[in-house]
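Session log. Operator J.P. requested a structure for one protein chain; no other inputs attached. Running the standard single-chain path with token output.
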Amino acid sequence: MTMAITMRAAGLATAGLALALTPVLAREPEAPQRQAQTDPALRMASALVARMTLAEKLPQLLNVAPAIPRLDVPAYNWWTESLHGALGARNTTNFPEPIGLAASFDAPLVHDVAGAIGTEVRALHTLARQTGRVGHIGTGLDTWSPNINIFRDPRWGRGQETYGEDPFLTATMGVAFVRGMQGPNPDRPQVIATPKHFAVHSGPEGTRHEANVFISAHDLEDTYLPAFRAAIVEGRAGSVMCAYNRIDGQPACASDLLLKEHLRGAWGFSGYVVSDCDAVKDIADNHKYAPDGATAVAAAMRAGVDSECNNATLGDTAGLEDRYSEALRRNLITEGDIDRTLVRLFAARYRNGDLPGLAGAPAAVPVSAIAAPAHRALALAAAERSMVLLKNDGALPLRAGTKVAVIGPLGDATRVLRGNYSSGLSGPPVSVLDGLRATLGASQVTLVPFGESLTDGDRVPTAVLQTPDGKPGLLARYYNPATPLPAFYAPGTREKTVAAVKYQTEPVATRIEPDVGDRNLDLARVADVHRTIWTGFLVPADTGSYRVGLSGAGGTLELDGRVLSDRRKARWNDLAGMTTVKLTAGRRYAIKAEGSGIDLVWKRVSDAPAAELKRAAAEADVLVAVVGLTSDLEAEETGVTVPGFAGGDKTTLDLPADQLAMLDQARATGKPIVLVAMNGSPINLAWAKANAAAVLEAWYPGETGGLAAANILTGRTNPSGRLPLTFYRSVADLPPFGDYAMTGRTYRYFTGTPVYPFGYGLSYTHFTYGPLTVTPARGGAEAGLRVTTRLTNTGDRAGEDVAQLYLTFPDRPGMPRVALRGFQRVALRPGEARTVAFDLSPRDLSSVATDGARSVAAGSYRVTVGGGQPGTAPGSTAIFTARQSQELPK
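Structure written below.
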């Protein structure tokens, strides 16, 4: 930390104290008021807000905005999630985790995926209108996606949600997602996109609510802000979510640097800002930047936050608006501040069509659009393009007739496919086992059950569940609270759980459900907080040992009258509570599950996995080892502390010890090993690189991921993904996790030797690159240039290559070793050649000085175009010179 940063942090802390003591002074009207005469959405919103009473205004500042019947304003909940699939009351399409989408290096694909998700988000809104459940999470016409934080350290549990470690790749994918989600007209968005978390937010999870991140001006401009700038300036995102952490002493949701200087100042943002959930509360409670809740909400509002997400809204919102009333009473904010904020929020609801009357607003989407067959086909294509072939000694593709033994804890797993920010409500999941049986034939593929593992826990399928009267599924009874919730969730008593609520003795709804899971949003009579009791039977198809239990929180499970899982004190994302039991094929085991927010999960396990592996290997030609992690281990702020993981983050890059032991046992059989890795972050693949015959990185690939993997393993699909991350050997190769300086991190600044480098990926065919032609713009290279090359498929099968353009900059302090500045996915038939052209703007050519100034620096540049980083794949290089420096705006 430099002295300049120290003094700046001290100054900001003093400013926070002054805010607590100084009344608000009159300020000039801001953009919404000035633009109201020309922007019809702002004009309509201004007119609506002018008719509202103060008592009606204040609750609208929270993510749960209640209805205003007097003004015909329906309830609205700004909390909608659709990171890689819409989350709601129906089975929606689950696409690959964003880190997998990043590995596609295919911006048009990400655009199309986001468009499909947006269609399903609008269809869920239609469903909520039909059932009267507007105001519930997952029913709004905005979404808190994409996550465009930089995945700077492989330990971060939420890195799976991002588009990787490179600012250019992240910016390009982020813009594609925003444009796909919002549609062709950002002034009339089909769904408002919300890039998050602004900014400098990428772990550790355990300290995110109080972390004070000191960051250099160079790293801020060079690494952490480019993707957000692109999403706002190029993508025209309608919303932004501010982060939990502090930046140089100021909370991100009260940051002058981020929200005023960059967002609304340099970038001209006119949309609305939403806080991460409890981030405004953290301003006082954890950061101690403000002395109390009233001052905290004032600090956020005066910095530019428009909508506060508060986790208390998961129970009841009673009293949450009192902090704003107190801030008004103490002159920390004015009613004009509130009006300005509400105009932004209501203008958004007019623009996306939630409120009627604005010409050109998007039309409603029918419920039938949810999980459309075309979306499932797109999910399969996305999964195939996301997977990265890292090694192949000739074992792949698997030929017809090959006998395969599937080993490892994830071979038959389906929960792992979904990644995080997903629910069990998706299309039918396809495991790697299922995919291989579909492509090679069931008789050619044998499963070797694994022993008990941290990765256990797949949703129990409907096929093995029976209602009390013998129908598929379980009988579900829904009970509403007997007393209005404010009696249980009054201010000051929010720590009480849903378990404390007294429920009615008679169900308000009864129906057959396919499994244990929340599917009640299409039942108008069921309250948001409710109790569900599922009853029926578990009827296994095979005799053996099973791990059975519940995931989620707030429920219990009984099997034949024995309590197997009690989740009433668990956190929502703790590891599943499971018990190993012996089950007999065809026998009916009575089930009773009770609660909400839970899933019934199980996993077939072996009592002697090493012996079973040895027997299966003797009859197999190839062992397909499906190993890795799950998004229950690497995750968002959990209470999980087990070897290798703490609070959602990783403490090692190694696979779990039981998986490493299994791989050694597999190697001892002498049969070739094809390793398929499922994970959302870099893991140490040194063992696989040295010992496996082939390695396929599959990520968390979505509902059709097992079929996508099988299509690649069997050669039906040519592998074409590229790593969006550096795969290191050990955390010992990296700076401390809590250090946000970029020195020694990512391919741009890491000087060591990775196991596999950023941009790397193999194919079943071969590509060559011709010499580069560099054509400067009329004003010289500093004004932009075009780079062209000839790409040829010299192999014997069709395939796609990802042509990547890298720059090496003139030598000056702070320059990256090399930096991605362009990429194109190109499909070629055997022997086909195509000219590939890259047009580089001054911003593409720019770099950042140590003081944070961005410019096209004068001097000599090296440009390389190839199938990976310079020196790691076939490619060509040229040199060009910028004659004079050119400064660029923030």
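Operator note: Residues 1-32, 487-497 have pLDDT under 50 and may be disordered.
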